[in-house]
Amino acid sequence: xxxxxxxxxxxxxxxxxxxxxxxxxxxxxxxxxxxxxxxxxxxxxxxxxxxxxxxxxxxxxxxxxxxxxxxxxxxxxxxxxxxxxxxxxxxxxxxxxxxxxxxxxxxxxxxxxxxxxxxxxxxxxxxxxxxxxxxxxxxxxxxxxxxxxxxxxxxxxxxxxxxxxxxxxxxxxxxxxxxxxxxxxxxxxxxxxxxxxxxxxxxxxxxxxxxxxxxxxxxxxxxxxxxxxxxxxxxxx
Length: 237
Known about the structure:
Blueprint: H1 13-24, H2 33-49, H3 56-73, H4 86-114, H5 141-157, H6 172-186, E1 188-190, H7 200-216, E2 219-223, E3 230-234
Antiparallel strand pairs: 1-3, 2-3
Helix pairs in contact: 1-4, 2-3, 6-7
């Protein structure tokens, strides 16, 4: 069998042998030592002809293969039962190396997948805690966020099929004054009643205005029951 030298880098003689076995499309247990030795030596000779450095470990393997090949060609003599068959020893080494190589490829894939993930150490968020933001004991920020999420869902459901986009500027300061004006008249309002329209800008500014007013102590936020309506009440400062 004529072997053509390819530009392939091998990790060692066992890696080269596995490549030759794969090229021959045979099972490791069914390798023909005579053929695999000839192919291995052919490869080593071509490396020398191309003035490529051949590591000593490749030459040691070449010597081992020649010895195994010669043992198979010579008449079989009665061997010591405790002496291990060189061919069987070589096959075991190839199998172990193949397992090692497959495990290495798997670890490399896991490493590549891990390189696409980014993580950070847990952070202490106490610096972002604002003790000036007063709400009732039975109402948490999560409740307000859930109410905000409900409004977002309602915004999607009530979105008209055809819309004409008109731009209107909103500011937290202006919206806060509007909310205070309504609360001064009615004294209390439900959270959802403050959203006359459901554009993204309007909803976000209204939400931030409510939090700002609660932080400044201009209003109080209460919830009569779990998942119930959030009530805003005007508070005289």
